[in-house]
Amino acid sequence: MEMTLRADGLTTKPPSGSSSGPPSLGATMSTTAASRRRRTYGSISISSLELTDDEHDLSIPEKVAAASSAKTPPEDPEPLTSDFSTFINLFKSYLGVGYLSLPHAFQYAGLWFGSAVFPIIVIATVHCLHLLLQSSRELSRRHKLGTLNYEETAQVAFLGSTPVAQKMASSFSFTVRFFLVTMQLGLCCAFYQFVVSNLFQFVECQMGGTRVTYLGYSAIVILPMLVVSFIKDLKTISYISLVSAITQLISIGVILYYCTAPDISSSKYSSLPAIGKWDEIPLFFGITFFSFEGIGLVILLENKMKNPENLGGATGILNIGMSLIAIVFFALAFYGYLAFGAKTAGSITLNLPMSSGLARMVIFCLTFAVLLSFPLQLYVPVHVLLPFVITDLDSERSVAFKECFIRVVLVFSIFSLCAGIPNISIFISFVGAVSSSALSFVFPPLIHILTFTPAKNWRGKLVILKAVLIMTLGVMGFATGTYTSLTRIVAIIHGPETWGTLDCGGHTVPSKHPSLSPPIV
Questions:
Q1: Can you spell out the DSSP letters for 72-103?
Q2: What one-character DSSP code corresponds to residue 161?
Q3: Which of 97, 112, 199, 445 has the fewest CB atoms in 10 Å of its CB?
Q4: Mean pLDDT across the chain, nearest whole number?
Q5: Statement to judge: residues 121 and 33 lie in one domain
Q6: Which structural domain range is residue 56 located in?
Q7: Which DSSP category does 392 fall into?
Q8: 31 and 118 housed in the same domain
Q9: pLDDT tens profile 382-394
C-alpha cells in the first residue's frame, strides 16, 4: 500500500480510482485527527491511544499508523550523542546508589547462593535489554514509525498483534508509563536520600554535632538538586556523567581496599551461611533487580545516538558496558559481605571507619558523584510526563516553561517522599519488586513474543519456554519481594520508634531521624 506523509505529520493514502471498499486512511484520519491530541517531546510523539470504530476496520499497519500518528517528529534540538557519550551514560545509569546495598543483599541471600544467582540475574537482564531493543527496531522498521521509546514499543507491539491484544494496547502502554515513572522516581528518591544522609553523616562527624536536624539537611539539599535537574540534554549530561563515573570508580576501589584489607582466611568463608533465610531471600532479588534497573533509559539512549547500530551486537556498547558493571557490582557484593558478615549494613558505606580521613573522603566523593547523577535519572520521568501537559498550540517558550515546572514539581515531590522514608534498604527492595521486575523481566519477553511471532516448531516452542521462564522470574520477584517489603514496612509503622546513630570514630551522634537498623544509607 502506497502511503504519503502530510505536512502535519499524518499518514494518508492517495485515493484510488474506485469509490468502493473501506475508507482510506486519509479519510479516516481527517475525521479523527480533531479528536486526537498529538503531543511531541523531542523525538517522542504520543497521541491518545484509542481507536475509533472506523479505525478498527483498517489493516494492522494502518491501525499502528493511526494510533501513533505515523510519527515523523519535528526537528529535535537535542544534539545526538557519540558512542563514547552513550557508553558513559549507560555505565553511569547503572552506577547509582543501589549497588552500595548489594553486600547487604548477599547477607539476605547467603554467600554462595547469592554468588550463584547473581550471574543469572545479570544474563537475564542483558538478554531482556536486547529483546526490547530488537522489538523497538523491528516495529519501527516494519511500520515506518521512526524511533520508539519503551511505552510506544509496547503499544505498537500490541496493536500489531491479535484483536484481543489490540484492545489491551492502551492500558498496557499506560501500565508501562506508570511503572517507568514509579521506578525512576524511586531511583531519584534513593539518590536524594543518599546525598542527604551522607552529607548529614559527613558534617556531623566532622563538626562533632550541630543543631541542624536531618529534615533540615533534606531541605538544604533541595537547592543543588534543583540546579542540576535543569541539565536537560544527554550530550551535556554525558560530560558530568564522566566526572561522576570516575569519582565513583575511585571510591569503589577504596571501598574494596577496606573490604579486602582484613585477613580473610578460609574460616571466614565457612563462617558465613551458604544460603540465607527463605523469608529474606526475596529482599535479595528486590535489591539486585533495583541495582540493575536502567531499561527505561537504555532505549532512549539508543534513540539519541548518532550510530544506534553500535549499541547492540556481541561486541556492542551494551554488552561491554553491562559486563564491566556486572564485574564491579559482584566484586563489591562478594567482598563486602565477606569482610563484614552479619554486620554488613544497608549501605556498605556505613561499614567504613569514619575515624579514617580516607573513608570520609569516600563518603564525600560518592555524595558528589550521586548529586551529579541526578539529572540522568530525572531524564526518564520528565520524558514520560511532559507530553501529557503540552499541546501542538504551545510555543517553544511555553514548552520550556512547562518542562521546568515539571522538574521543579518532581524535585519537591522527591523531597517530600524522602522526608517520610527512614530506611532506604527496604524502600529499594519495595520499588525493585514492584517496578523493576516488571519492566526488566516481564514486559520485554512479552513484547518480543508479540513482535516476532514464534514459528510452530520446536525452536518456536523453545523461544516461548525461554520467555515464560524469564517472565516467571520477574513475577516471582514481583510477588515475593512486594509481600516481604510491605511486611517490613508495616513492622516499621507499628513497631517502636528507634533512632539511628552515627559512628564518628570514638563518639556517636544521634541521627535525629527515625529508622530501623541499619539507620542511614
A1: -PPPP-SPPB-HHHHHHHHHHHH-SSGGGGHH
A2: S
A3: 112
A4: 78
A5: no
A6: 4-68
A7: T
A8: no
A9: 988 888 888 877 7
For residue 232, give the CATH number of its domain: 1.20.1740
Band of residue 48 on the pLDDT scale cut at 50, 70, 90: very low
- Better-predicted residue by pLDDT, 471 or 477: 471
Residue 37 has pLDDT above 60, yes or no: no
H or E stretch including 425?
helix 424-431
Where is average pLDDT lowest: 80-89, 107-116, 258-267? Answer: 258-267
Q: Is residue 520 part of a domain?
A: no
Number of H helices, E strands in the chain: 20, 6
pLDDT at 410: 93
Q: Which H or E element spans position 366? A: helix 357-385
In a domain, 417, yes or no: yes
Q: Which residue in the block uniquely carries the three cell numbers 557484593? A: 333
**CA dihedral for 256, 269, 501, 224, sign (positive or negative):** positive
Same-domain check for residues 180 and 204: yes
* Encoded amino acid at 180, one letter: L
Q: Which three cell numbers stand for residue 324?
A: 564491566
Q: What is the DSSP letter of 22?
A: S
CB neighbour list of residue 116: distance below 8 Å, 6 or more residues apart: none
Question: What SS3 state is found at 212?
Answer: coil
Q: Which helix (H) or strand (E) holds 44?
A: strand 44-46
Mean pLDDT of 448-455: 87
353-384 burial: b if 16+ Cβ within 10 Å, else e: ebeeeebbebbbbbbbbbbbbbbbbbbbbbbb
C-alpha cell at 96: 547509582
Is residue 172 within 8 Å of 158, Cβ to Cβ? yes
Name the domain boundary from 18, 43, 68: 68
C-alpha cell at 363: 563518603
Q: Are 26 and 49 in contact (CB under 8 A)?
A: no
Per-residue model confidence as pLDDT tens digits over 86-135: 999 999 888 888 899 899 999 999 999 999 999 999 999 999 999 999 99
State pLDDT tens for residues 363-407: 889 999 999 999 988 988 998 888 888 887 778 888 888 889 999
Torsion of CA 49, 55, 60, 62, to 10 degrees: -90
Q: What is the pTM of this model?
A: 0.79
| Residues 251, 329 share a domain | yes
Number of independent structural domains in the chain: 2
Residue 74: inside a domain: no
Residue 490 covered by a domain: yes
pLDDT tier for residue 71 given thresholds of 50, 70 and 90: very low
- Domain final residue, candidates 14, 41, 68: 68
